[in-house]
Design goal:
By secondary structure, this protein is of the alpha+beta class. It has 10 helices and 12 strands. The protein has a 5-stranded mixed β-sheet, covered by helices on one side. The chain starts with a helix and ends with a helix.
Length: 402
């Protein structure tokens, strides 16, 4: 049975259960109403018999005691003196349940003659409360049970939807990962075959160039693998950071040189590193900055991009900013771009349109920075610029002494 059929079956079962709950509740109240009517009439009859045997006893006290004996302690009543006429209901006219049930349900008892053309009857003040009262706990308990059942069904449906979404995300991720690895693997295979053929043995410059390309592609594959492993460790809480003072100028210079070399479009890097050191894990920080610079190049205009990497110290944090003059990010997308598998397409593919895909870069940055005890911010104007800020806490004095 697939998940949709399971959800439908569960909902149908819940509707059937609610239907029968209503029927059983109605039947239970009807039976309780009949039981109360019988007990009230019998209690009044017994009180009448005892009073007839000893007229010195009070009819109201006798009736109250008989109600208690019938477990109708909550029932309240009032005795009324009425005149005897042709419409008066006397005990001699009542033989079957159908005779006295309407009278009791109307909140009255038959009239006991007292002489001088008068009689006494009991007016039942809270008959409905006595009918419903004993059933209320069972009804509430049943409703609570069905409420928990409904909550369980809702939770199951939510879990199934999340599982479906997660399965789709995994499928998209697998496709994107394979697609992203296919290009470097193909390059590696072609390059190795070319080198193995010996055609470049007498061309050392081309041979060296092939080795450089193969090394870059192997590094690309290693980066993808490490990124996935790091995210898995972060989600499992097993990431161990090697924190130390990191020199920012050489780190940024290495990154800018790498991207200048492999950029497929004109790129200009500018740096303004007012804070030259930061307390962080060098490798993870380098990968986080690499992701931000890579996004700046990827989502830039075809004619080129200008990327500025700046840093400063403020309020106990070192802020590292990566700013570009690219296509920007719509405000609606800025709330979701740090989510796993989320990306934003360029304008020519629909501004702000989100797609499920590889989309691990910004999620990686956010999780790594959080693991450092910091946070990530974004500021962007579509068509003008995007600026991502990594904020990492400065090293504490206690840690410096250690």
């Amino acid at each position: 049975m697939n998940k949709s059929n399971y959800i439908l079956l569960t909902l149908v079962a819940a509707v059937i259960a609610l239907f029968f709950l209503g029927r059983w509740t109605s039947m239970s109240l009807e039976l309780r109403s009949e039981q109360v009517a019988r007990h009230v009439h019998e209690a009044w009859c017994r009180a009448d018999d005892v009073h007839a045997a000893d007229t010195t006893l009070r009819i109201d006290s006798l009736f109250r005691e008989e109600l208690k004996a019938a477990d109708l302690r909550r029932l309240r009543f009032r005795l009324n003196i009425v005149g005897l006429d042709s419409a008066t209901t006397l005990r001699s006219t009542l033989h079957y349940y159908a005779d006295y049930a309407p009278l009791v349900k109307a909140g009255r008892t038959y009239v006991i003659p007292t002489g001088d053309g008068q009689g006494i009857e009991a007016r039942l003040l809270n008959l409905r409360a006595e009918t419903l009262g004993s059933q209320l706990y069972y009804l509430l308990g049943t409703l609570v049970g069905f409420g928990l059942l409904g909550l369980g069904i809702f939770t199951q449906v939510s879990i199934i939807h999340r599982q479906d979404k997660l399965a789709q995300m995994r499928e998209d991720f697998s496709y994107a990962m394979i697609h992203d690895m296919k290009s470097p693997l193909t390059t590696l295979l072609i390059g190795l075959r070319t080198l193995r053929s010996g055609r470049l043995d007498d061309k050392p410059e081309k041979k060296e160039k092939h080795f450089e390309v193969l090394e870059q592609e192997a590094g690309h594959l290693l980066t993808l693998t490490n990124r996935v492993l790091t995210l898995s460790k972060l989600e499992a809480g097993r990431l161990i950071l090697d924190l130390d003072e990191v020199e920012l100028p050489p780190l940024v210079e290495e990154l800018t040189h790498t991207f200048e070399t492999k950029a497929a479009k004109p790129v200009t890097f500018r740096t303004d590193l007012q804070a030259e050191t930061v307390y962080a894990d060098k490798e993870y920080l380098k990968e986080a900055l690499s992701n931000l610079i890579d996004n700046a190049l990827k989502y830039s205009k075809p004619e080129g991009v200008e990327v500025t990497v700046a840093s400063c110290r403020e309020n106990g944090y070192v802020h590292i900013r990566v700013r570009d003059n690219g296509i920007g990010i719509p405000l609606s997308a800025q709330r979701t771009i740090f989510g796993k598998f989320e990306r934003v397409l360029p304008k020519d593919k629909g501004e702000g349109q989100k797609v499920s895909g590889f989309g691990l870069g910004l999620n990686y940055v956010m999780n790594v920075v959080r693991e450092h005890g910091g946070y990530v911010g974004v500021e962007s104007v579509p068509g003008r610029y995007s600026e991502f800020t990594i904020s990492l806490p400065e090293r504490k004095e206690e840690e410096e002494r250690v």
